[in-house]
Write a structure and sequence with these properties.
Shape: globular
Helix content: under 10%
Oligomer: single chain
Largest sheet: 5 strands, antiparallel
Radius of gyration: 24 Å
Amino acid sequence: MRSSPLLLLLGLSCQDYRLWPDPDEKDLPQDSEVPQDTEGPSRPAGTLPVETLPTGDTSRPPCELKPRPSQSYTGSPSCTPMPEVSWELSLEQEIHNEEGPFGSPVVISGSSGRTLIMAEGADSGSRALVGYDGATGEQVFAHQVLCGDRDGVTAFRGSAPGAHDLYGTVNDVGRETLTLVNVDEETTVETAGRHHNWTTVARDIDHDGAVEVLTGTYSAELDGSLVGSFEEELITMTPTVADTDGDGIDELYNAWGRQTVDGSTSIAWEGLSDTSVTYRYFYGGLVRHEGTVVFAGQDGHSHFVADLDGVPRWVRPPFDGDEVAESLGAPALGDIDGDGEPELFARYEENVVARDLDGAALWQVESSVDRSWVEGSVAMADLDADGVYELIVWGSRGLMILRGTDGAVLAHDEQAATLAIVMPPVVADVDGDGSAEIVVAGSRADGDLNRHDRLFVFGPASGRWARTRPVWNQVAYDVTSVRDDGTVPAFPRANHETYNSWRAQPAHDGDHPDLEIEVIETCRDEDEGLFGVVSVHCVVHNRGSRDALAGAEVRLLTWEQDSGVGLQEVDSFTIQEPIPSMTSSEGVVFRVGTEEWATRQVVQVDGAHDDECDWVNDRVDVWEE
């Protein structure tokens, strides 16, 4: 049975199911008017479990709806027109660890609501996962681990629907182990599999609301138990994970090739490095190029673009046998020249180079002091909210910001530097001031560059950079795979269908609409119809500074385990009216027969714009336990 969604005015009376329960929230009386000028709804990002009404329970009334009209909100929009940007850099924080060197940092929301800078560091003579307050630089925690290699950690929140514990990973390539640290519970476990990767990926590969951790060789639950293993006996620096064929099962891309995370299929790369090489600096991301999803990245000396069947479109320059490559830092992918297509930005010998995805070198800039040793890494960020990425370079010459179109140096600071081979910069709003910052690990330039015992936070010397996310949680960072609060969605929107970037931080700023879907509540009427009916009540908020055009489409999607297909649309509704800035739509109600209520449900809003300032909040998971 399928019935069309109804456009209804919603209240808060249905108590059979609750999403994001708030103990301080009170139901409105029947004759109450909803305030027209309120602070926007406050809730944790992501989802909490929905309470199920037991079959045959008649002690509670069936679903009842109360009027809920459109609402307007006070406060500032999430994105506004940008002022002119100053490119002069300012060193805002310098965090010194006297006990030893740092590994590559990440940024994540902590359990107290503050943003944390996390890295592998040292504590009491041992290696540790350490965290610092992004606003003050104060150390918040240090959890000792058995060993570590100063590699890139992965941070995330949540081990089950509604559980928001903070986790971090620490890698030890020498011991071939991976340690999972639950920061909130102060517990550590080592995974059972053989691990020899530089960093890991957090992903909900079975869509059950609990996060798994993936290396290039296996996937593991948060208790350390293995989920599966992959065909890969090489050291690959970081895997990339996404559902690229729409079958509901993620694929993993590593130095070996493409494999499904359940191990059912595998395709090896053709024509790349000799697969007998035991140590390969391999990285890459999935982007859409001229309408087709491709894998673009770096394999030792080689930059390449390959189709998903494993066949490269091009490889430049040729790989030099099994020699350890000089181009070791992780690349970044995104639109750097405003042509609507992503470009590849990476290190090559003593330079950084920008290439289009047809293989042509657009420009290169010298970035290394010592040409016999190539150090540092790169990233992308849209710091002026013009829709085009600037390029961030961190190495022995300090921190540089380059213009994407021609490589011109916009900013350069030489107070700090790094000699580490792989030490990528990250970009996030670490202190909640509404402006992006750049976080790097290294040394003071006037000291011993090998100590690597400091974290540096850079920002603009005056004014602000674009508003952006408070999270960059892993080296293989793509925007849609993690929410702003650090939780991992069960069904992320494909990054290549939205931001079309990899290791690039977009601006969530500028004069744009920002549609956000919110599920108010769901409930079940067991006595209605042959099987009963589930109702899903949701509204669409526009938190941007520009009105959203009429035509926003709200879609109810469902996924059935073992179906062999990805999310399928159950129903949809088109909002016929514009949604003004800082208002919500009227309520939308989907009514679905319980025979169509599958394993997992997702609600998504698609705006009539293609220039929203935030696509991550356009989709929300709905859980029924």
